[in-house]
Amino acid sequence: MSERDLPRPKPPVFLERQGYRRRRMMDAARVLPFFGLVLWLIPLLWEETGFGVVRSSSAIIYLFGVWALLVIGAALIATALRGSDSDPGAAPNPNAAPEPDPATASGPPQEAPPGRISAP
């Protein structure tokens, strides 16, 4: 049996640390709305009658608190994702406007003064 016939072991999957963290933050951003939905549905499980009755004012404070935590969490995730865009190895944004070539760009087009017709 030759070396060609032996199966080669697969190389280990290695992700750079910044890329791995960026993907996990993107995963957190995708899961955050579902997490918030579950937290908002918890008041539906509270008892409406009996000994442990929760007042509606407490429920509204709870819902506002969940909303505030979701906003803060989304802001932190967005900040972390924006900060990782400055990576030199990050993929370019396909939606970004192309930068003008400084050799050919002469600035914005000049308009003719009022009362004069500009030549083409």
Number of helices: 2
Radius of gyration: 28 Å
Q: Strand fraction band?
A: under 5%
Mean pLDDT: 78
The number of distinct β-strands equals 0
Strand count, sense and barrel status of the largest sheet are: none
Give helix % range: 40-55%
- CA distance, first residue to last residue: 78 Å
Tell the overall outline.
Answer: flat
Backbone structural class: mainly alpha
User: pLDDT under 50 segments (min length 5)?
Assistant: none
Q: Could you give the order of the helices and strands?
A: HH
Please explain how this structure is put together.
There is one protein chain. With 120 residues, this protein is mainly α. Helices cover 44% and strands 0% of the residues. It has two helices and no strands. Helix 1 runs antiparallel to helix 2. The mean pLDDT is 78.
Helix-strand layout with pairing:
Layout: H1 17-41, H2 56-83
Helix pairs in contact: 1-2
Keywords:
mainly alpha; 0% strand; flat
Task: Provide a concise account of the structure shown.
With 120 residues, the protein is an all-alpha fold.
